[in-house]
Amino acid sequence: MSDGLATGRLLLLVPTTSYRIGDFLDAAERLGVEVAVGSDQRQVLEQYSEGRTVTLDFKNVEWGVAQIETYSRDYPLAAIVGVDDETTVIAAKASQALSLPHNAPESVAATGNKHRFRTCLANSGLPAPRFTLFPVDDDPERAARDSFYPAVLKPLALSASRGVIRANDPVQFAAAFRRIRAILEKADIRGEAASHIQVEEYVPGDEVALEGLLDDGRLTVLALFDKPDRLEGPYFEETIYVTPSRLPGHVQGAIAATVSRAVATLGLREGPIHAEMRINDKGVWLIEVAARSIGGLCSRALHFGAAGRLEDLILRQALGLPVPIIELDRPATGVMMIPIPAAGVLRRVDGIEAARALADIEDVTISIPLGETLVPVPEGNRYLGFIFARSDTPEAVEAALRAAHGELEFTIEPG
Q1: Residue 184 lies inside a defined structural domain of this protein
Q2: What was the pLDDT predicted at 322?
Q3: Beta carbons of 265 and 276 less than 8 angstroms apart
């Protein structure tokens, strides 16, 4: 990485539905970086912001890239960072067009499509489940007869476990197939991702998540999170992440080696990655790799002392600035994504201050406003909020997160 200062503006590509923009803007301010935000809806103050915001078409990638090229003629860019899944491909293509550091667009696209991801890794030598692809208009009973069990049915491009359902037999398979078909009919996606369902062999085992940063193909592991709640289905709603991992050192080494081999096979070389894996007696099984950082507000669980927060590291790496020694500033940290307990309208949340007052709890954030309709997984893709904890051991962090969640009471009006 360069020791010089970046010249030009940093462009953050952020959907209007993203949680992430505030944390990235705070990081840019800490670094003293000139920043602009590219979003898919016109900002109210855009006409007064002197190039600080730009409206882009994220659905039509080629047109979106042309819009960024036009913008860059007036405001030269030093780097482009796609913050969420729907902006990583356009960030890669625009960076390529402007000769900025980037991942190959086809590599990024493969991480955003579950079938392409599995196909790319099929000959990598890494443990992988059987998988097959069905047209969404296929007959569910016929597809169920052709499947293996237990199976996990997945949309190709939806996030946050939306539409991911386990089936243990043909009856469950047919019901899950129809349910995912209904979800896809309402989802704002196009092409193959809207017209196919992937079926994968269910992989048992403990699940972990790795947060990493790539620099010219070299992987730096920033954090390895344990997921102490068993994710066995039929739905796969995330809850608790705790780091450092309590897995043995040799297992953690195997996880890092597996992710390094996977990103090399995919062709990823620059920027943040987020990987999900299952660990069992047959090895490390990749569930997915994303060419972006961890989603939601989960990155707030990571503090790296003098190096700053996760977003500081991502922006430094993107701009070619030196990255300080990376080390968590507390022995253990974690986050709980608060699950939605029932469908309906959120009317009241009690116990927030009691939860915040508990030992080792840093914050409790409710991210869905009162009066909004709650939709649980597999149809939904949001969490009620986030609980953050830091302490001396992973066990203490996990206990604090569970205790804080136990203080919260949600009044949900059926609807």
Answers
A1: yes
A2: 84
A3: no
Rounded CA gap, 264 and 110, in Å? 13
Q: Do the beta carbons of residue 114 and residue 157 sit within 8 Å? A: yes
Looking up residue 364, the CATH number of its domain turns out to be: 3.30.470.20
Q: Compute CA 360 distance to the chain's CA centroid, rounded to the nearest angstrom.
A: 25
- Residue 52's contacts (CB-CB under 8 Å, 6 or more residues apart) are 35, 36, 37
For 32-56, b/e burial (b = at least 16 CB within 10 A) is: ebebbbbbbeeeeebeeeeeebbeb
Question: Could you read off the pLDDT of 157-173 as tens digits, one per residue?
Answer: 998 899 999 999 999 99
For helices 85-97 and 61-74, angle between their N-to-C axes, nearest 10 degrees:
60
Domain membership flag for residue 319: no
Question: What's the chain's average pLDDT?
Answer: 93
Choose one of 79, 111, 143: the last residue of a domain: 111
Q: Same domain, yes or no, for 16 and 105?
A: yes
Chain-centroid distance of CA 212 in Å reads 12
Residues 6+ apart with CB under 8 A from 172: 166, 234
Question: Is the pLDDT assigned to residue 276 strictly greater than 60?
Answer: yes
CA distances from 341 to 132, 373, 383 (A): 32, 12, 10
Average the pLDDT over 275-292 and give the result: 97
349 plus 385 within the same structural domain: yes
CATH code of the domain containing 57: 3.40.50.20
Q: Does the pTM of the predicted model rise above 0.90? A: yes
Q: Which two tokens stand for residue 2?
A: 């360069």
**Per-residue pLDDT band at 48 (split at 50, 70, 90):** very low
Q: What is the DSSP string of 226-274?
A: E--S---SSS----EEEES--S-HHHHHHHHHHHHHHHHHHT--SEEEE
Asked, for residue 240, whether it belongs to a domain, the answer is no
Per-residue tokens: 57? 């078409």
